[in-house]
Design goal:
This protein is an alpha+beta fold and 318 residues long. It contains 14 helices and 13 strands. The protein has three domains: 56 residues, no CATH class; 126 residues, no CATH class; 95 residues, Endonuclease, Chain A. The strands form four sheets. A four-stranded mixed beta sheet has the order 4-5-7-6. A hairpin with a 2-residue loop joins strand 6 and strand 7. It starts with 14 loop residues before the first strand and ends in a 6-residue tail after the last helix.
Length: 318
């Protein structure tokens, strides 16, 4: 799930009940329009045009609900945690979009009610920004917040997503992490920063780095350019163990959707990929190992397969 699709619902497209009443609508009028399919109820007391709502993805609907909550919340409220993350345009892999997360800058005690989490804690002004016209936690603050409430693999995916899109920097995240050392699960943040790499371009690539970390595999170089004898670019490999002469490539539909050329069929793309791989192997003497999403779900077997290949190439595998 990604957030960078065109967002179809503007802040002013959300109508609150009190605003409709001010325009001389009655509750019966609102109910009739909902029943007739003219407007859709986003949450209690908030509505949008049904055409906009039906065109919205699950992520966009979550962003609309977050905005609706923000419009009825205390004026000091700011979107934080997963609700802020949804505004930073990173892949929302495995992020729970059930609850809207807010933090009040007046430092009132936190509470949970009706699928809304009011987080407690200090939120300085320098940790707040406007994103798409909505007050949200900065990207660095959002990264640290997410890392404190999710597992390391997911937190690393989010951190690398923010770094790759240049929403923040490792230095900014590390500086904020030092300011929040009293938070729970700060170890996750320290480990994630040690593994973070802005060159990682996808969820799958970050998950593979995490697999290497957990399974004790030597850490490969990501996004390595391969040149021919004349210095022309042959291609870029996803990961390389240079000492072993082994490179790794991901298979998958997402890669095909990103890198296929206009009018190119799946068969054409696969043939072009095969020729690219052959040219790289011929030019370098390296060997290729390919994995897919399913291999990431079976990390022990995948690591064993890779270690076997690395060991067969002469250099020590770990």
């Amino acid at each position: 799930m990604t957030a960078n699709e065109a967002f179809p619902v503007r802040l002013e497209d959300i109508w609150l009940r009190r605003e409709l009443i001010d325009r001389e609508w009655s509750d019966r009028d609102i109910a009739r329009c909902v029943k007739a399919g003219l407007i859709s109820r986003v949450r209690f007391g908030a509505y949008v045009d049904s055409a906009l709502w039906s065109a919205a993805s699950d992520l966009h609907r979550y962003r609309v609900r977050s905005r609706a909550v923000l419009r009825t919340a205390h004026e000091s409220s700011v979107l934080t945690h997963q609700s802020a993350l949804a505004e930073w345009d990173v892949p929302m892999w495995r992020i729970d979009l059930t609850e809207v997360a807010l933090t009040r800058t007046d430092e009132k005690a936190g509470r949970r009610e009706s699928l809304i989490v009011h987080h407690s804690g200090r939120l300085p002004l320098e940790h707040i920004t406007l994103r798409h016209g909505v007050p949200v936690a900065t990207a660095a603050r959002t990264a640290v917040e997410i890392l404190s409430v999710v597992d390391l693999e997911l937190g690393l995916v989010i951190l690398n997503g923010l770094l790759n899109l240049r929403r923040t920097t490792p230095e900014e995240v590390a500086r904020l992490a030092r300011q929040t050392e009293h938070w729970p699960e700060t170890l996750n943040t320290r480990v994630a920063l040690s593994l973070a790499d802005s060159r990682l371009q996808s969820v799958a690539e970050t998950r593979f780095v995490y697999l290497c970390y957990r399974q004790g595999l030597p850490r490969p170089e990501p996004q390595v350019e391969v040149l021919d004898e004349s210095g022309f670019l042959i291609g870029v490999v996803d990961f390389l163990w240079r000492k072993h002469g082994v490179f790794l490539e991901f298979d998958g539909r997402i890669k095909y959707e990103i890198y296929r050329r206009p009018g190119e069929t799946l068969a054409d793309y696969l043939m072009r990929e095969k020729r690219r791989e052959e040219r790289i192997c011929q030019a370098t003497g390296w060997v290729c190992i390919r994995i897919g999403w399913a291999d990431l779900e079976n990390p022990t077997a995948t690591a064993r397969r890779i270690l076997k290949l690395l060991a067969s190439r002469g250099a020590p595998a770990a």
